[in-house]
Amino acid sequence: MSGTGQSGLGESPSLQNATSKDRLSWGRLIAFALPAAPISALGLPLVVHLPHFYDRHTTLTAAAVGLIFMIARFWDVFTDPVLGLLSDKFETRWGRRRHWIVASVPIMLVSVFMVFMPPEGAGGLYLTFWMFFLYVGWTLLTVSHMSWGAELTPDYHERSRVQGVREMLLIFGMVFVLVLPVLSSYLVPEETRPEPVTLMGWFVIIFLPITVWIAVSSVGEVKTPQPDHFTWGEAVALIKRNRPLQILLSADLFSGIGNGIVSSLFLYLALDVLMLGNFSNVLLLVYFISGLSFVGPAIWLSNRVGKHKAAIFSSLFSGLTVPLIFLLPEGNYVLSALCWTVLGVNMGAGPFLFRSIMADVVDHDAVDSGHQRTGLFYALLTSTNKIGYAIAIGISMASLDWLGLKTGEENTEAALFGLQLIYILPSFTISLIVAWLLSHFPLGEVQQQANREILAKRALDAAAEAIAVRTIEPGNVNSVVSERTPRTDP
Fold it and tell me: Does the global pTM surpass 0.70?
């Protein structure tokens, strides 16, 4: 399909006339999704490896590390809507998204180097400063990239394909970055072997600029209406009156809490409860390969039953399978690998379905308000997820001190069992809450297609008005321009 238009940084081709039969070519789709690999290679250690690394290799306590990561996440929550609004507002000859992605690269390279390869004696102030700096670049990159993807196609199911392929690249990045420490353990002598987080940091530093260059030079942008200026009070009112947005953000917030708890406590569970040693990284690898394998079936399910119903199934599956961890004996590699294979089946479905659903919520708002605010909406989506992760990391790391658990040391049975409870029970409960929230989501394929028809008619009306302004007297413009179609909220 020619839907993505011509390549090149100076192009901003339009997909306004795309239909449900149009499909983005695999080449352009993969080129767009490539930056997701280094994005995830950064995101994984931020919630799994770096808190554990700073806990073990600095003088900071687990609670102090958790507090810093939580504060940094909340800082990111503040910057998300600000940068989302900027992403919507400022358009260049490259379009509205790509220049922000390019601008994020140098910020990311410097901050990743400082956070992943800290000097001797790095303490709380050092970590706090560079985490804040890193999250500015992270927000510029992720919000702009997700907004760009949401605008590539207006089709309900094609949006799932776009976000599904992006999710596959995200998981691929996680898989690749987990392979590096495993390969290093076999190829590099122990006395000269770098820390796993060092290898992960270099992967991001090397591949982020390469993949961003491929994406921005190969895939054009969609021309979207310029949003009008509005105040923060209006932005808050937007959330209050938009029921689909409220439900999606609430589900994303709870998902962030559940995923944040299991992510931040995974290494503690694997090393100290299950006694898996170096097999812990292999276990993560199994988990993500399983997730990568089942993104395709998740897209298929979404196309059959609808996005929010597929997300409900995804959440219920997560809740019902996580208690399997209770059944695992210590040191059993085979059963642990089988368990995390089952858990991984569903790991990619929720995130890409939420991002695809948000594109439909943007359409709903555009019909309701007359504004195209993709960047703001995706900034809100990343904000709720980060709030969830911030709460989760703060609670999780503080709970380790409360339990008296010391990684790599002898721990009491009560502390180890308490860790299992904190890992499993919140995730189980939250999965049921998310499924319940999504069961009340009002937008499906029929409503989204109706919204797209209204937006398409408005675009034609605007084009007719522009032609009329150039060809007839100003006083006669209204006679040739039809009224805009009203909408009814679901």
Answer: no
